[in-house]
Amino acid sequence: SHLLFPGCELTASTKSYTFQVDKEDDSDHILALSVVCLRDGAKDECNVVEIVGRNHKNQEITVPVANLKLSCQPLLNLDNFKLQPPVTFRLAAGSGPVHLAGWHQIVHRDDASFEEDDDLSEEEEEELPPIMPAKK
Asked: Which InterPro entries match (predicted)?
């Protein structure tokens, strides 16, 4: 099921927000970030938003995802950038306010449709032509 992520707002006084799920929940969760934008009252300064999460080796990583400035880029569409909770959004530079919005998907592990979506039948697979070497 898809749930609207009501979002969060990062400001000079609230520089971070952590999205997490109950550790007892055995469902798979995906948080998709759709848009990052400056709100009313933002100054014409660089506002850098970072995401702090974990990589496939469970090591903490920090990735900058947006650098917004009122006069040149007040909004950034992240095209449903998918993250696995827990994840922290942090205002690394600037004073905001910066608003983040997206959606939250919950996939129950006993949901058979989850497995069907990942497997392509032989009929759906396309034959790709062989890769030819470049001509000199």
From this structure: Nucleoplasmin, Nucleoplasmin_core_dom, Nucleoplasmin_core_dom_sf
How many domains is the chain partitioned into structurally?
1
pLDDT score for 78:
92
Instruction: Say how far apart CA 63 and CA 77 lie, in whole Å.
Output: 16
- In a domain? residue 121: no
Residue predicted with more confidence, 6 or 106: 106
| Contact (CB, 8 A) for 99 and 7 | yes
Q: What pLDDT is attached to residue 115? A: 47
pLDDT of residue 126 exceeding 70 = no
Distance CA 18, CA 85 (A): 9
Which pLDDT belongs to residue 123? 47
Q: What is the CATH number of the domain that holds 8?
A: 2.60.120.340
Domain that holds residue 79: 2-108
